[in-house]
Design goal:
With 433 residues, the chain is an all-alpha fold. The chain folds into 2 domains: 91 residues; 328 residues, no CATH class. Helices cover 73% and strands 1% of the residues. The chain contains 23 helices and 2 strands. Strands 1-2 form a two-stranded antiparallel sheet.
Length: 433
């Protein structure tokens, strides 16, 4: 995507927002027309990045952007039709979708016992569509558009920069939860998750194409990631980034013994977690880590205990994707009295609730299998995997489909499954600078 196309793309997104805010349902006519025009010109890069921008907008809690939540459902269906109808795209291998197919079949089976079957079917179908469409389009773009890697890093930088501007210029919009930065996301933790997946994509870019970004671009992006981590106050983002560097060091310096080193790191983390409050007090970092919420568990322990109690009722096969949301909503008053607001906040427990231990093992087995395959291309795969496994211990993002985090994860995973020769032989010259 050259500068002219990038400028036009930004204008189109701004036009979508303007129409969505002031035009009501007109956006559901205007946006599909835009997609069709991009499709006619084979501007697949704009089409795919536009979908991710829509997912980012849908994460916002601003009432004016509520249209994005409905638009993303239509968007993914449009992309699905594009993938199955285009022979050049359909020729791409569906290894990620195929790997998760057993999990999806078990998820469909579990819907038999769902107390909210229709939403469960919708969520299961959307998850399957994302696993089918996201990696397929990313694979196609990696192989045919040299500009895609750089364009996506520019998108990350733009989102982080806009979030920082909102935080300082319009703090009533760009902050929440005690003046923590949330930017254009629904809450600071959402921004923290975007920081994690964006940081991993940046690291993947540096592994795949070290010279793709100039020194100033690299420093600029890392500065934006650092500032966003600082002002969002996201412990998950900070620890995930630090863990990535630790695991990366272990695998680079100890080669395959890095797995053993990683086990020792996990044991050390258990000690640190058990004594987190004391350690943070010793380092005088109480304010940043919000020790008062650590001591209370931020309500997560309450949610985890409640989820575990309900898992016992459907241990082997769960009650369908979306059951976790139904369960937490149905017991919101009871959980609120105990001191918890929100969801389960743990991807493993959510998948276990929804699809049972069978679904959880299939999901994790598929994930680990794909990363083992990816490790044949680079040892970057394992630091990436361990960072994600840590992140989803405290957040539910990988159990959901139409959010701006899972899609970035899938794009990165797709990239590390592709040999470097594919990137080197892609048929367009780098234009964006």
């Amino acid at each position: 995507m050259d500068l002219r196309r990038a400028f036009i793309f930004v204008l189109v997104v701004l036009f979508w927002i303007l129409i969505g805010v002031f035009g009501g349902p007109v956006i559901f006519l205007v946006a599909p027309v835009t997609w069709y025009l991009w499709l006619r010109k084979e501007n697949y890069e704009e089409l795919f990045i536009g979908f991710i921008v829509t997912l980012i907008l849908s994460d916002s809690l601003e009432p004016a952007l509520i249209f994005a939540g409905n638009l993303k459902t239509i968007y993914i269906l449009f992309l699905g039709l594009l993938v199955v109808s285009n022979r050049s795209i359909i020729g791409v291998k569906f290894q990620i979708f195929a790997s998760f197919l057993p999990y999806l079949l078990v998820a469909l089976l579990c819907l038999i016992w769902s107390p909210s079957m229709l939403p469960g079917i919708q969520k299961t179908v959307s998850y399957g569509l994302l696993l089918f469409i996201g990696p397929t389009l990313a694979n196609y773009l990696y192989g045919t558009r040299k500009t895609f890697l750089k364009s996506f890093n520019y998108l990350i930088g733009s989102v982080l920069l806009l979030s920082l501007i909102l935080y300082f210029i319009l703090p009533e919009v760009g902050s929440s939860h005690g003046f923590r930065m949330r930017g254009i996301f629904g809450n600071p933790n959402g921004l923290g998750l975007f920081i994690i997946v964006s940081f991993l994509f940046y690291q993947f870019t540096m592994w795949q194409r070290p010279s793709l970004l100039s020194r100033y671009e690299r420093y600029g992006l890392l500065t934006l990631l650092g500032l966003a981590t600082l002002y969002s106050g996201s412990r998950n983002a900070l620890l995930s980034i630090l863990l990535f560097y630790v695991f990366d060091f272990a695998f680079k310096n100890f080669k395959y013994l890095g797995m053993i080193v990683s086990i020792f790191i996990v044991i050390a983390l258990n000690f640190v977690t058990a004594n987190a409050v004391e350690i943070i007090h010793a380092l005088s970092l109480e304010e940043f880590f919000r020790v008062e919420t650590l001591a209370e568990g931020s309500g997560r322990l309450i949610a985890w205990r409640f989820a575990w109690e309900n898992i016992q009722e459907s241990f082997y096969l769960g009650r369908g994707i979306g059951f976790d949301e139904y369960l937490m909503r149905s017991n919101a008053f009871y959980l609120s009295k105990l001191g918890h607001e929100g969801g389960v906040h743990n991807t493993y427990l959510i998948i276990w609730l929804n699809t049972g231990i069978i679904g959880l093992l299939l999901f994790l087995g598929s994930l680990i299998y794909l990363f083992i395959k990816a490790s044949a291309n680079s040892l970057f795969a394992f630091p990436f995997l361990f960072t994600v496994l840590f992140s989803i211990s405290f957040e539910p993002w990988l159990a959901a489909s139409l959010n701006p985090y899972t899609i970035v994860f899938l794009i990165t995973l797709t990239g590390i499954l592709i040999p470097k020769s594919v990137f080197e032989n892609s048929n367009e010259e780098m234009e964006l600078s």
